Amino acid sequence: MFGSHVQLKTDDQIRAMRRAGLVTRAALEAARAVCVAGNTTRDVDAAAAKAIADAGATPNFLGYYGYPATVCISVNDTVVHGIPDDYVLADGDLVSIDGGAIVDGWHGDSAFTMIVGGPQHADPADQRLSDATEAAMWAGIAAFATAQRVGDIGNAIDAYATENVPDLGLVEEFTGHGIGTAMHMEPEVLNFAASNQGPRVKTGMVLCVEPMLTAGGIETVTLEDDWTVKTVDGKRASHWENTVARHAGGIWVLTEEDGGLAGLAPYGITPVPL
Ligand code: MF3
Ligand code: CO
Questions:
Q1: pLDDT at 5
Q2: Atom 12 (ligand 1) nearest CA
Q3: Secondary structure (3-state) at 143
Q4: For residue range 200-240, what is the model confidence (pLDDT) as tens digits?
Q5: What are phi and psi of 57, to 5 degrees?
Q6: pTM: predicted TM-score of the whole model, two decimal places
Q7: Residues with Cβ within 5 Å of ion ligand 2?
Q8: For residue 175, which of 165, 184, 164 has the smallest C-alpha distance?
């Protein structure tokens, strides 16, 4: 084994990444606010774009390998990388919004899932799917706090899903990743337990933890547009993601306002802001 090429950040660099994380969060919240019945997914994309521009930041998805929008909006049976278009949102749609911003050269990346129209329009199965995916993400993030190997994160996500929602599908084809001066950097962060436990966790690592669950099988298909990833069986899917730093004092969830305080509490982990 040759040394890994993981970019390790200083505390000051993590503080800079926090600014990108907060702009990313603001963009996602702006998108959430207009993710309502009657609006198109393009309207939602425009709100995220405006929030990033208003912050004086740059979207990292736009133009990434030719990606044509600011955020990915993945509706119902789309797992990830849905392209905003003229689709008109309807109450009860299960929508994942994934986006990121660059501030002073540092990247943020985050995703969440919501149900259009809120709980009163939600199919309980969709709410459960989203809640389980979010919880699997937090289980993975909590594991990063004490992990010796990056693979400990995938082990925790897998264990959460296997123990709590064995009927749901845990997608293996797409992974989390390192992040820093680029959106996608080493290491790969698997969402499942694998024999390769990955590189050693080091102080200064910043990772995106981003599990995807489906209401059925884990087989996916990429459409002709070369982006949109759907479930083969047509079942619905959820995707949640945060950018998380590990520093000498602990972990800090850079893309959450509260640094991960609420999400990590059930796992007995307290995030440590810098
Ligand atoms: N945000 C996705 C990820 O979590 C990547 C989106 S690909 C893009 O890794 F082209 F849309 F940017
Ligand atoms: Co990501």
A1: 86
A2: 61
A3: helix
A4: 999 999 999 999 999 999 999 999 999 999 999 999 999 99
A5: -105, 180
A6: 0.98
A7: 109, 208
A8: 184
Q: What is the mean pLDDT of residues 80-103?
A: 99
Q: Which ligand is the nearest neighbour of the Cα of 67?
A: 1
Residue type at 263?
G
Task: Return the residue matching tokens 């521009």.
Answer: 53
Atom of ligand 1 nearest to the CA of 71: 11
What would the mean pLDDT of 22-51 be, rounded to a whole number?
99
pLDDT recorded at residue 1: 44
Backbone angles phi, psi at 50, to 5 degrees: -65, -40
Q: If you average pLDDT over every residue of the chain, what do you get?
A: 97
* Backbone angles phi and psi of 173, in degrees to 5: -70, -25
How many A from CA of 174 to the centre of ligand 2? 9
Mean pLDDT within 10-23: 99
CA of residue 253 to ligand 2 center, whole Å: 14
Residue 169 C-beta-side C-alpha neighbours within 13 Å:
21
| CA distance linking residue 93 with residue 194, whole number of Å | 33
Q: From the alpha carbon of 174, which atom of ligand 1 is closest?
A: 9
Give the mutation target among 24, 58, 64 for probing the ligand 1 site: most ligand atoms within 8 A of CB.
64
The tokens describing 94, both together, are 């299960």
Distance CA 186, CA 165 (A): 29
Compute the CA torsion angle 131, 46, 83, 108 (nearest 10 deg).
-60
Q: What angle do CA 2, 254, 190 make, to 5 degrees?
A: 45
